[in-house]
User: Which sequence fits this backbone?
């Protein structure tokens, strides 16, 4: 999950026959989840008009879906943009591999091209398909505040400021943002949920003309995969969950657990690496000295925000960009170290380097991503609505885990003011499913390892591949060990006999500083 994401034609009649029997399926945990009613003909009888897209590497189409799967005849339809990469060898094709994007808020349309480009074996064996989730990208969007308003969440002041005035401003901005969402979304907010999205996925499966799909999903897409398998257990063959969001206790518990894991990644991985490479970056020869350099830079930006190519750089920009860079050591650690040097000595940097840095720093989150992220994380389940609770809790998070803890109040204040969610509770147990393959890194900052262990214990029959590093996302990120387990499973159904480990990828060598 990222806070700011891979005979040839089917007859329409076959797809309709599948839909007639498959779509009214009740959730596996039916006590908490009512069955959806029959699907109107305008959805189950539609034909996907595939056209070349993205320079012809993929085919794309638009799928109409109900706004509310529990009342499919009411309200306007939504448009879901879908994509596919046809199997390279039809004679060897074994089925459909569905993907989804992380976030929530990222686009999934181009991902089949990336996955098949890096894995010719999977490209030969599967039609690889994906989509932009409802609320996202080329699908029907959820609309909240404009970009300038979203930028104010991060560009004004200092999120570590705990003064009454600063705290009041956080709640004021949160209430205004939620009001914008309600006013501009056209009543869509209650339906931008993971549960509604997995029903879209099953319609997509049926329109592709297949009884079952295999699934690969990283980060937030692990929620979609787990929910889909739970609600449609007879429609899945093989499921890979890569860098798993801890959905066992809901979004509130998961999100409030992130500050500790980002701080761990920063203190145990980045700062020691930065100190080791002091000859290249000059930020201190020990982790403590490197941390002091970061804090000096942050304080300087607080007292005197830097004008960089028209971007007013504040300490919040630094924290948010550092957070993003922690997701991947190989690309992120050198980039963060170089950025620190540039912000410390901007006059020594080239015009192009300053332009590139400004592009990395702003916007912190696009307005579209921000809208969908909160529509899902606030709408999937309940959050505490007590402002005093969040003021007290976020004060501790800011003190103990300041890199990400400082933003906790901003995020929680939005969900505390969100319209009360109506989404059903989905309890994921793994009962009745084939074994699921999970992968997670020990120092993953976003989908932290402790949460992955909880999901693993609750997901009957799952196998966990533990990767001994801190990157977010394991498959096709340079780890041959992790790649091998995923490909073997998707191609042959072979899983490790028991939970196992991969050594991970070594930390990167230093690169030239921006200049």
Assistant:
């Amino acid at each position: 999950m990222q806070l700011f994401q891979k005979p040839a034609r089917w007859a329409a009649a076959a797809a309709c026959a599948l839909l007639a029997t498959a779509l009214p399926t009740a959730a596996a945990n039916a006590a908490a989840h009512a069955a959806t009613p029959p699907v109107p003909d305008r959805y189950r009888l539609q034909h996907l008009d595939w056209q070349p897209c993205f320079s012809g590497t993929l085919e794309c189409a638009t799928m109409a879906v109900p706004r509310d799967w529990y009342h499919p005849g009411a309200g306007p339809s939504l448009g879901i943009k879908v994509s596919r990469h046809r199997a390279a060898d039809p004679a060897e094709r074994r089925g459909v591999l569905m993907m989804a994007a992380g976030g929530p808020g990222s686009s999934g349309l181009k991902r089949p091209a990336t996955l098949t480009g890096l894995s010719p074996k999977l490209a030969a064996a599967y039609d690889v398909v994906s989509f932009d989730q409802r609320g996202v990208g080329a699908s029907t969007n959820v609309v909240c505040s404009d970009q300038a308003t979203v930028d104010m969440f991060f560009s004004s002041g200092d999120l570590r400021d705990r003064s009454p005035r600063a705290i009041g401003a956080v709640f004021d901005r949160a209430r205004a943002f939620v009001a914008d969402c309600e006013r501009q979304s056209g009543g869509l907010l209650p339906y931008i949920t993971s549960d509604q999205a997995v029903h879209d996925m099953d319609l997509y499966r049926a329109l592709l003309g297949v009884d079952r799909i295999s699934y690969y999903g990283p980060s937030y897409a692990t929620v979609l995969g787990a929910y889909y398998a739970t609600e449609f257990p007879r429609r899945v063959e093989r499921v890979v969950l890569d860098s798993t969001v801890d959905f066992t206790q809901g979004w509130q518990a998961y999100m409030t657990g992130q500050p500790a894991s980002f701080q761990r990644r920063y203190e145990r991985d980045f700062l020691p690496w930065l100190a080791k490479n002091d000859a290249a970056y000059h930020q201190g020869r020990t982790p403590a000295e490197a941390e002091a350099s970061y804090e000096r830079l942050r304080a300087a930006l607080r007292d005197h925000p830097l004008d960089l190519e028209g971007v007013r750089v504040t300490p919040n920009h630094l924290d948010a960009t550092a957070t993003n860079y922690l997701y991947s050591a190989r690309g992120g650690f050198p980039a963060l170290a170089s950025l620190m040097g540039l912000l410390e000595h901007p006059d020594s940097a080239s015009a192009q380097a300053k332009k590139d840095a400004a592009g990395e720093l702003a916007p912190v989150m696009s307005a579209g991503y921000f809208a969908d992220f909160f529509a899902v994380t606030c709408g999937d389940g309940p959050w505490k609505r007590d402002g005093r609770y969040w003021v007290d809790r976020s004060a501790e998070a800011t003190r103990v885990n300041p890199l990400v803890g400082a933003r906790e109040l901003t995020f929680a204040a939005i969900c505390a003011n969100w319209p009360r969610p109506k989404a059903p509770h989905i309890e994921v147990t793994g009962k009745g499913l084939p074994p699921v393959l999970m992968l997670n890194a020990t120092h993953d900052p976003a989908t932290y390892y402790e949460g992955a262990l909880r999901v693993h214990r609750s997901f009957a029959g799952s196998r966990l591949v533990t990767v001994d590093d801190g990157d977010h996302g394991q498959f096709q990120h340079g780890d041959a060990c992790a790649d091998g387990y995923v490909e073997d499973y998707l191609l042959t159904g072979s899983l490790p006999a028991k939970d196992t480990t991969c050594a991970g990828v070594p930390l990167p060598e230093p690169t030239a500083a921006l200049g």
Q: What stands out?
A: The chain has two domains: 12-141+195-248+425-502, 145-184+255-362+384-417. The first strand starts at residue 51 and ends at 53.
